[in-house]
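just leaving the lab so this will be short. what follows is a protein written twice so to speak, once as letters and once as structure tokens for the fold. can you read through it and tell me how you think this chain folds. anything you notice is useful, everything is just below:
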Amino acid sequence: MKRSRKALFPSKLTLACFMTAAVGLNLACQAADPTPPLSAGEPIVVPDSKGGFDYLQVDEPLRRLLANHTGNNTLDVFDLDSGKLIKHVPTGKAQGVAVDSKSEKYFVSVSREKLIAVIRKTAAFMWATMTLTRCGS
């Protein structure tokens, strides 16, 4: 019994035309927007800093960069427009941050202390903590 195979492209000529069109479309898109998607800006100086950072997050409405500073045990909040540090918020060993636009809070996961630090966005201070426990303990 002979099976018939239906090719995605019925002929090599059709495939060649498709590939030529795809390459042409790609080149046209690149020519339409010559600006690269990302470009390096001025470096941000971190005063009173020791050690490294973990994750970074951007709070777009407030134009802030949120840096989990594991070396300082802080969440560092920067103004993106000026590049200046707004505040080192003591949290413990910050590993990640989530932005909650509705409640005006940042939720910072703190690994060593096994907690979630709740930061008020407007004043950038630790408002509350939630201790994390293992399932079944």
About this structure: The chain has a mean pLDDT of 78. The domain at 56-131 is CATH 2.40.10.480 (Thrombin, subunit H). The helical segments are 12-32.
